[in-house]
Amino acid sequence: KQEVTQIPAALSVPEGENLVLNCSFTDSAIYNLQWFRQDPGKGLTSLLLIQSSQREQTSGRLNASLDKSSGRSTLYIAASQPGDSATYLCAVVTEKLVFGKGTKLTVNP
Amino acid sequence: SAVISQKPSRDICQRGTSLTIQCQVDSQVTMMFWYRQQPGQSLTLIATANQGSEATYESGFVIDKFPISRPNLTFSTLTVSNMSPEDSSIYLCSVEGGLVGNEKLFFGSGTQLSVL
Fold this sequence. Notes:
The structure holds two protein chains of two kinds.
Chain A: E1 4-7, E2 10-14, E3 19-25, E4 32-38, E5 44-51, E6 56-59, E7 62-67, E8 72-77, E9 86-93, E10 97-99, E11 103-108
Parallel strand pairs in A: 2-11
Antiparallel strand pairs in A: 1-3, 3-8, 4-5, 4-9, 6-7, 7-8, 9-10, 9-11
Chain B: E1 4-7, E2 10-13, E3 19-25, E4 31-37, E5 43-50, E6 56-57, E7 68-72, E8 75-80, E9 89-97, E10 104-107, E11 111-115
Parallel strand pairs in B: 2-11
Antiparallel strand pairs in B: 1-3, 3-8, 4-5, 4-9, 5-6, 7-8, 9-10, 9-11
């Protein structure tokens, strides 16, 4: 059974800092991995999708990497801003989509 | 991409009553997914709704408790029946979209349900 773990559960950083969010999964036979952002009172917004054959994807200040063999993905956020404050979820697809519990990020001005 | 309108955004309900959540998509989609997010927990898939057929429920979820309708390719409802405080969660609908082979999940804004 696929299990997805996100560490840390919560993170607070000052504005401008670069940061890394971690996601690990137990079954490396995944089709893809997706990072989402969840804001209070809003749904999930897809940030980056990494196919199993890819090692990383970039969008603006976000960079996601994937190491299937070790069952890990990281989401790198450069020059963090208060508007980045949200919960970040990763999800992997094997037979079905399995989500982690998320990392709650607070960026302090 | 797909834009999903979900309502209500939140509700407070009494034990024993039922609530129907609606999702409208701006394009035709084959499958719609319904998720539950309990406090402090990850998203859990409740069921997959296909137009013209019965929804497929995941382990631990049953049709009597979570009846789903899918009358056409752009709309679906999820009903939470005979509610108890344990049903207090965020409920989200979702669809796949994007280029073939590079599909992403798109979500509605969620329904925050509190059962007293």
